[in-house]
Amino acid sequence: MKIASLGTLTGPVIAYGGAVGNLAALGALLRDVSRAGVPAGNVICTGDIAGTCAQPAECIAATRAYRHHVVAGNIERQLAACAGESGAGFAPGSLSMRRAVAGWRFADRHTDAAARDWMEGLPDALVFAHEGRRWAVVHGGFTRIARYIWPGSPEVLFEQEINAIEAAAGPLDGVIAGHCGIAFQRVIRGVTWLNAGSIGIPPDDGRRGGRYARLDADGARILRLDYDPAPAFAAMVSSGLTQGFDLALMTGHWPTEDILPDEMKTPRRP
């Protein structure tokens, strides 16, 4: 495991993840960062820069150009390894896996060797201090990069991850994660688990746009990312990425909920 330290960050910190090749969403996030006056050194990405939408190369290039701190997600690790699939943790043969294949293959075709080399050097975790609290940043989990941890997951799952990070990196006050696509906060044994959500795909709540997180002196909050998804939708359609995630940008609903716990699935109408 490669753990990088950012030292002490002062002022607001913005954490986001899951651009997944959606350049319109990443552009909106960059505008929010600029309006808030947050320097690039205080912007942290939880990974999965590419992998679903139609502008993976552009998102990778922008992330590198703006010099955001990045924790490797499963997408970055798999692209760096020239692997045959995304490593997202979907059940074999599931609808989620079948719908994700096209986006993964598109990202794989449009990622050059220089980008893969950069991804290979990304850390598995980051640690930093902010306003008297010590934070770690991971993708899905520390024990497994593509681990799905949901708002209602058993407390023991959070404890396993927190214990593993603390064993490797020392005591923590908070953990910032991504991967599952749902932004939330939960406190476990006094440690805040903050999922920054995804900017590139809506959180399956029927509303367009994404989510990201911001740390201030008075604590952490989850913010909405509002943007026009039409350009990203059009780019997906023109690229043949019409397996359902294109429509998710417009409807705010995922094309399948088979990865969700039962209590989080949309109730079926009679």
TrEMBL record:
Belongs to the metallophosphoesterase superfamily. YfcE family. InterPro entries: Calcineurin-like_PHP_lpxH (IPR024654), Metallo-depent_PP-like (IPR029052). The lineage of its organism: Bacteria, Pseudomonadati, Pseudomonadota, Alphaproteobacteria, Rhodobacterales. This is Calcineurin-like phosphoesterase domain-containing protein. Pfam families: Metallophos_2. Residues 38-218 form the Calcineurin-like phosphoesterase domain.
